[in-house]
Amino acid sequence: MDVDINVHMCNYKGVNRMDEGTQTYIETVKVSDIPWHRLTTTYGRATDFPAHLEVLWDMKDVDAIDAAGEELAQNIEHQSTLWHATPFALVFLLRIFKKAVEEQGHNEIARYLVEELAELFLIIAECIRDGLILEHADPLPSFADMLNEEYLWSEEYDEDEDICRYEDEEVFPDDLFFSFYYYSLQVLLLCKPLLDEANEEEGKLLELLTEIDH
Fold it and tell me: Contact at 8 Å (CB) between 122 and 205?
């Protein structure tokens, strides 16, 4: 199928404006507000995300950061697919990135974390860019709408039940699925002022986000 990239990028430009409600949500939502155990990831549910995020926030041990970071990275993106947990994880990864940027001048672990998160954010941004050249639904009206009961998975995790649910062709409604990308983008756009254009990885991320947001 031929895709008119210009048309879809124009459609995208019409919906990517940051509104006050979205920014307020991103800046104020708490880890405890998110039902992580009911959000899907690459390999299951996001139940352990709060613990992994806390390890990154503490910035105390590189090995622990590597382990936690790998778990998060592998479970929020896989082969250019983003998941229900992705935009919510990015909210808190953005806060961790901001803290690390502020502390990197006197903290080697913070400097290392800035590099690792910039690389992860670039991967996510590339997934979003690639998704936007395809035909897509409109996103849900608000970030928090992705937590509506109708979209959440069961309270109790059952691997067999989850596998059966994935066999449904409409496991994620179109507007919900595009919201994974749209609201992930909204989070990443807020990191633009934190990026150092002189740094190779951060410069690439800034260039890509500016291109998408143009």
Answer: yes
**3-state SS assignment for residue 38:** helix
* C-alpha to C-alpha distance for 189 and 120, rounded to whole angstroms: 14
Q: Which amino acid is at 113?
A: L
Whether residue 170 has pLDDT greater than 90: no
| Whole-number Å distance between alpha carbons of 116 and 205 | 12
Q: Is residue 40 predicted with pLDDT exceeding 70?
A: yes
Q: Say how far apart CA 138 and CA 175 lie, in whole Å.
A: 6
Over residues 8-21, the mean pLDDT reads 58
Query: In the beta sheet, which residues pair with residue 214?
Result: none
Contact 91, 76 (CB under 8 A): no
End-to-end CA gap in the chain: 26
Kindly calculate the radius of gyration of the chain based on its CA atoms and give it in whole angstroms: 17
Helical H runs in the chain? 5-13, 20-28, 49-58, 62-76, 86-103, 108-132, 159-166, 174-189, 200-213
pLDDT of residue 149: 97
Is pLDDT of 3 > 80? no
pLDDT tier for residue 120 given thresholds of 50, 70 and 90: very high
pLDDT of 98 > 90? The answer is yes
Q: Which residues fall within 8 angstroms of residue 165, CB to CB, at 6 or more apart?
A: 153, 171
Note the pLDDT of residue 206.
97
* Token couple for 197: 């254009």
